[in-house]
Amino acid sequence: MDVIADWCATEQNLASLTLPVFLLAGEHDFVTLRSMEGWQQLPQLRCVVFPGAAHHALLEMPGDYGACLEGFSQEHEAHLINNG
């Protein structure tokens, strides 16, 4: 755990992303939230933090997690169809 606890995206081209980015994390997820710090300036960023969940929000709150992911996917699928 200590090895990944301090990991953060450092890619220089991260800021040039123009596609929608969807980040999902648990409120008590010390790994994902910390690693996402460098992503906060992305222009198309949407972040959902699940209250009470830890690192495995997908397993802890599968219904909520799936609904968020499905909504985001449907929203951007329609955008690609209309603008692709």
Structure, explained:
This protein has one domain: Alpha/Beta hydrolase fold, catalytic domain (Rossmann fold, 3-Layer(aba) Sandwich). The protein is 40% helix and 14% strand. It contains 4 helices and 2 strands. The chain has helices at 2-5, 32-35, 57-60, 62-83, and strands spanning 21-26, 45-50. Strands 1-2 form a two-stranded parallel sheet. The longest helix is centred in the last third of the chain and has 22 residues, at 62-83.
Give me the secondary-structure topology.
Blueprint: H1 2-5, E1 21-26, H2 32-35, E2 45-50, H3 57-60, H4 62-83
Parallel strand pairs: 1-2
- What is the total tally of β strands? 2
Task: Output the strand order for the largest sheet.
Answer: 1-2
CATH third-level topology: Rossmann fold
* Unreliable runs: none
Structural class comes to: alpha+beta
Mean pLDDT: 80
Strand content: 5-15%
Round the Cα radius of gyration to an integer and report it.
Answer: 14 Å
- What's the CATH architecture name? 3-Layer(aba) Sandwich
Query: In angstroms, what separates the terminal alpha carbons?
Result: 41 Å
The level 1 CATH classification is Alpha Beta
* SSE sequence, one letter per element: HEHEHH
**Domains, number:** 1
* SS element count, helices: 4
Largest sheet: 2 strands, parallel
Helicity level: 40-55%
The CATH homology group name = Alpha/Beta hydrolase fold, catalytic domain
Shape: flat
